[in-house]
């Protein structure tokens, strides 16, 4: 036991000195560190990066423009196959109505995501994005990497051309969805028809090089090892060293919602360990966002003591990862109250993390 404590102490000394921890250090933290030790280290990194007692949030809304998708990820109960009578594609007017409701609340970000709908090509997205931007002063945080890749393939254009055309039409940033675990052995088990880890990283690198920033995510709790979680974090850190394009990182636990995977719910204890190690390892990603949507508001609030500095979006609507845990989505007043009660100052931001108040 003394030897194990000595290893954790050596890692803590690295963190205190601002030194980068290694892959082996990350595994050691996951497997051996106590929750209090992780909290202390993650909190140290958080205050080094953000010396003011501010926790940010954004007023945003998710709009799932279609649920038609052929990829059939085992953890998703949202999708419907192209032949399903339950499949839908929102009309422009329906999308506009949702954006207008968001703007009435002072919202600044619309997260537009759907599935791999075979009937939609690049011209659909160019028309939709341009129509939104000409009507509304809203930030388009849109499309997962797998959607972008599929748009390119189905439209018979290169990935770079696809991103350039989407950017010209109004795409301003990309959500980190679809990362799951950037370990192909895990991806083959949970989403065998989805892109590989290298494909996900390639889309992000190409977007960053074109000046399109993105967030990054990690869905854990699907039977992976601690080393595989660290492998995911290392890949994010390595790409960030190269592009500096990731604005934030959001780890979240798999939560069963009637999907085919049928795993077990992640615990609050496991989430706090994971978010703390993420903050400690990702020394080059400025912001760590609370995953209150999957873990619940109170665990989200507690995560502010484990390296989290951002409470994410008000969301308003969620269809993909919503579970009984989070059946009641939070208003921005509730977000502000949760942040204040944890001893921090809530401040509204935009998608690029610029403060608006």
UniProtKB/TrEMBL annotation:
Which keywords annotate this record?
Answer: 4Fe-4S, Iron, Iron-sulfur, Menaquinone biosynthesis, Metal-binding, Oxidoreductase, S-adenosyl-L-methionine, Transferase
* Key word Transit peptide present: no
Annotated binding of (3R)-3-methyl-D-ornithine, by residue = 144, 313
What is catalysed by this protein? dehypoxanthine futalosine + S-adenosyl-L-methionine = cyclic dehypoxanthinylfutalosinate + 5'-deoxyadenosine + L-methionine + H(+)
Provide the Radical SAM core domain boundaries. 55-283
Residues that bind [4Fe-4S] cluster, according to the entry? 69, 73, 76
Cofactor annotation remark:
Binds 1 [4Fe-4S] cluster. The cluster is coordinated with 3 cysteines and an exchangeable S-adenosyl-L-methionine.
Q: Which cofactor does it need?
A: [4Fe-4S] cluster
One Pfam family from the record? CofH_C
* EC number(s) on file: 1.21.98.1
The entry assigns this protein to a family as follows: Belongs to the radical SAM superfamily. MqnC family.
Q: What does this protein do?
A: Radical SAM enzyme that catalyzes the cyclization of dehypoxanthine futalosine (DHFL) into cyclic dehypoxanthine futalosine (CDHFL), a step in the biosynthesis of menaquinone (MK, vitamin K2).
What name goes with this protein? Answer: Cyclic dehypoxanthine futalosine synthase
Q: Which organism is it from?
A: Candidatus Methylomirabilis lanthanidiphila
Upper lineage ranks? Answer: Bacteria, Candidatus Methylomirabilota, Candidatus Methylomirabilia, Candidatus Methylomirabilales, Candidatus Methylomirabilaceae
Gene transcribed to yield this protein: mqnE_2
């Amino acid at each position: 036991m003394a030897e194990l404590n000595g290893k954790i102490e050596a890692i803590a000394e690295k963190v205190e000195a601002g030194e980068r921890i290694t892959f082996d250090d990350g595994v050691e933290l996951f497997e051996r560190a106590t929750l209090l030790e992780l909290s202390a280290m993650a909190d140290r990194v958080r205050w080094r990066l953000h010396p003011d007692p501010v926790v940010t949030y954004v007023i945003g809304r998710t709009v799932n423009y279609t649920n038609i998708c052929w990829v059939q990820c085992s953890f998703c109960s949202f999708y419907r196959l192209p032949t399903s009578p339950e499949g839908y594609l929102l009309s422009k007017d329906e999308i506009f109505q949702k954006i207008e409701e968001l703007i009435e609340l002072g919202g600044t970000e619309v997260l537009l995501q759907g599935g791999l709908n075979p009937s939609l090509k690049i011209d659909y997205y160019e028309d939709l994005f341009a129509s939104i931007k000409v009507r509304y002063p809203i930030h388009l945080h849109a499309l997962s990497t797998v959607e972008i890749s599929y748009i390119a393939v189905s439209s018979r254009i290169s990935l770079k051309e696809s991103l350039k055309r989407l950017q010209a039409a109004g795409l301003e940033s990309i959500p980190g969805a679809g990362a799951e675990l950037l370990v192909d052995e895990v991806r083959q088990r949970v989403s065998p028809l989805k892109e590989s880890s290298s494909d996900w990283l390639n889309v992000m690198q190409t977007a960053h090089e074109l000046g399109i920033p993105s967030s990054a995510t990690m869905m854990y709790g699907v039977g992976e090892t601690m080393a595989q979680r660290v492998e995911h974090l290392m890949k994010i850190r390595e790409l960030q060293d190269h592009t500096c394009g990731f604005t934030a990182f959001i780890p979240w636990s798999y939560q069963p919602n009637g999907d085919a995977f049928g795993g077990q719910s992640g615990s609050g204890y496991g989430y706090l360990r994971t978010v703390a190690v993420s903050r400690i390892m990702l020394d080059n990603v400025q912001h760590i966002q609370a995953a209150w949507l999957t873990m619940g508001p109170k665990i989200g609030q507690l995560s502010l003591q484990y390296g989290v500095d951002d409470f994410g979006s008000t969301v308003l609507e969620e269809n993909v990862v919503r579970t009984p845990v989070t059946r009641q989505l939070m208003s921005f007043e509730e977000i502000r109250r949760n942040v204040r009660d944890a001893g921090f100052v809530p401040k509204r931001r935009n998608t690029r993390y610029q403060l608006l108040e």
